[in-house]
Amino acid sequence: MKALILVGGFGTRLRPLTLSFPKPLVDFANKPMILHQIEALKEVGVTEVVLAINYRPEVMINFLKDFEDKLGITITCSQETEPLGTAGPLALARDKLADGSGEPFFVLNSDVISEYPFAELIEFHKSHGGEATIMVTKVDEPSKYGVVVMEEATGRVDRFVEKPKIFVGNKINAGIYLLNPSVLDRIELRPTSIEKEVFPQIAADQKLYAMVLPGFWMDVGQPRDYITGLRLYLDSLRKKSAARLATGAHVVGNVLVHESAKIGEGCLIGPDVAIGPGCIVEDGVRLSRCTVMRGVRIKKHACISNSIIGWHSTVGQWARIENMTILGEDVHVCDEVYSNGGVVLPHKEIKSSILKPEIVM
Amino acid sequence: MAGSEERVVAVIMVGGPTKGTRFRPLSLNVPKPLFPLAGQPMVHHPISACRRIPNLAQIYLIGFYEEREFALYVSSISNELRIPVRYLREDKPHGSAGGLYSFRDYIMEDSPSHIVLLNCDICSSFPLPDMLEAHKKYEGMGTLLVNKVSAESANQFGELVADPETNELLHYTEKPETFVSDLINCGVYIFTPNIFSAIEDVLKQKKDRANLRRVSSFEALQSATKALPADFVRLDQDILSPLAGKKELYTYQTLDFWEQIKTPGMSLRCSGLYLSQFRRTSPHLLASGDGKRTATIVGDVYIHPSAKVHPTSKIGPNVSISANARVGAGARLINCIILDDVEIMENAVVIHSIVGWKSSIGKWSRVQGEGDHNAKLGITILGEAVDVEDEVVVVNSIVLPNKTLNVSVQEEIIL
């Protein structure tokens, strides 16, 4: 089977992290986001992944070369020279996706983190005999999204309602699809939207089905959702493979610590923390609801909550980092400094406290 | 014997509970003169300065606080300095000259040749022995300690003009609207006992004026009821202003530190000034440590002998820690005053703040001010028995006594 991952553009909403790496390569739970998807695809027998990308493909290719061998999967890029929306890239990659086997292929939105229940998706797709299956997820405030109105018993999609003012349902498009190659015949090579143009057409032909996504779902395209997404991901990990989570007197709740990271004495870590490879957490440090990326050093007695610490940054002794502080790559926070919601671009030194949320260029 | 002719009596005006409201919330718990700066009550610093005057016979504290508020302190400081210190309570405020006059019998009991008068809420090195020598040379009735400040800030004080040759006080005006001079009155004086006759003259004039008013128009009567009581005599307006330029008053300029202690923010700055004075005058009072057996100490730090400070903590500069305070492992204290019985727990951080008696600062919590001593919320102040729970952040805030903070606050006054 094959899969197309819609990577898209600059990932501006996840800056300053995406100033250093394209969004799919930004670490989430100690692994580049896109690897979560590629590994899950590999699990269900996908042999070739096409990345639809319009920004810095060389960085992606170089990075993913290593994983092609490790995972035994072919990864290629389909580069848009102009933005083609969410459906155009399918047309562009048509030759790669339609290989004559007649097998359905996956399409994934790269911002989405979930348990990726691809096996169930395949099974459901085969059972209904339609042309396409989309995964939907339940949300609390459907009026903010495009709602998928479907027949409860069969899952057949009736219609889509964009930002409904009155309640029509609470399931929204989760950005994970399984499509028959015939869907490609419905897409022209021009900027076009799969959600707004292609799916309504298939639904009108009564050949579009929706499956409710079991487990969690989060669009981690921006920092606040990234931090929430980590909590959901770790909750799910607790249920599925608790052995991968850290244990000990210094751990509270769900904590993921890379085997090469070092944690000092008298620390209290968790809940909902990911500590990446090669990190050094010195004595007396407090971490909660945060991501500490590869190569970071957290010095003694520092306290971090609700924040993201970018690659190879350092946080000084008795520093306090909180309230959606995002440190880009190689940021150095001096001793005793307080950051309340500072968003810091890469390669900066922070010498004085940031008392209110602000961007440090 | 020369000593009997040269006796000096010191008088320190300490004010009363209705004064010094700007010092709240700290003055809700303790009379402002007893608030500790550099680990010693505010009034202790002028008292020890007075102690250095040769032939000092007695120190009086004059104010209108309850006697019992000063009883304990007065007896312990008398013993410690081996000099009689006595608190004299005014039944009501009389002004600084009026207050002095109302206790003239006590003050003159020892037949002093000179009377040192100073206000409690100033922070200075109090160069009293040198000032006394200068006073004797001037041969006037009184000598004022004066200080040069920036032209912009001068109008908060009594501005004065002195003769650059003779140092005679030529002109004095209290808090003028327009700029007069950048020389200001420090609130430290040395007088000969003639000061009492000067005050008496003023009282007499006031009485005459009041009598005159009584028989004059209705309008005058009205304004008289609003005016200060007849026995209220201010030193500045009623004595210094009229006597300026009459070869009675002289000035002595200090080049050392001088500040007024009106607000909690300023008390933190003044605590630092006294600590740096200790570095020169009594370094044995300052803590030291390198983080091995005792805490790491940076700059000037005072730690009361009964306080327990963990060796992994780092303290200073400008920190003063009072009796029975406990500072936990990995705590960090910078520019702060920690009062009696406070507990600072593991890995907590306190910067530019004053932490009130019996308060507790939770693990990994942070109490911080911006560090501007003059701004309303520039220094974070926690009143008595404030509990900051684990991991909570308190920035640029004032918290009144007996509050528990379980969520972070910034730029707030918490009643």
UniProtKB/TrEMBL annotation, chain A:
GO terms for biological process: GDP-mannose biosynthetic process. GO terms for molecular function: GTP binding; mannose-1-phosphate guanylyltransferase (GTP) activity. The keyword Transferase applies. Residues 2-233 form the Nucleotidyl transferase domain. Its EC number is 2.7.7.13. Pathway: Nucleotide-sugar biosynthesis; GDP-alpha-D-mannose biosynthesis; GDP-alpha-D-mannose from alpha-D-mannose 1-phosphate (GTP route): step 1/1. Residues 251-360 form the Mannose-1-phosphate guanyltransferase C-terminal domain. Belongs to the transferase hexapeptide repeat family. Catalyzes a reaction of the Smirnoff-Wheeler pathway, the major route to ascorbate biosynthesis in plants. This is mannose-1-phosphate guanylyltransferase. It comes from Panicum miliaceum.
From TrEMBL, chain B:
Residues 10-209 form the Nucleotidyl transferase domain. Pfam families: GMPPB_C (PF25087), NTP_transferase (PF00483). One of its GO terms (molecular function) is nucleotidyltransferase activity. Signal peptide: none annotated. Residues 297-414 form the Mannose-1-phosphate guanyltransferase C-terminal domain. InterPro entries: GMPPB_C (IPR056729), Mannose-1P_guanyltransferase (IPR050486), NTP_transferase_dom (IPR005835), Nucleotide-diphossugar_trans (IPR029044). Belongs to the transferase hexapeptide repeat family. This is Mannose-1-phosphate guanyltransferase alpha. It comes from Panicum miliaceum (Proso millet).
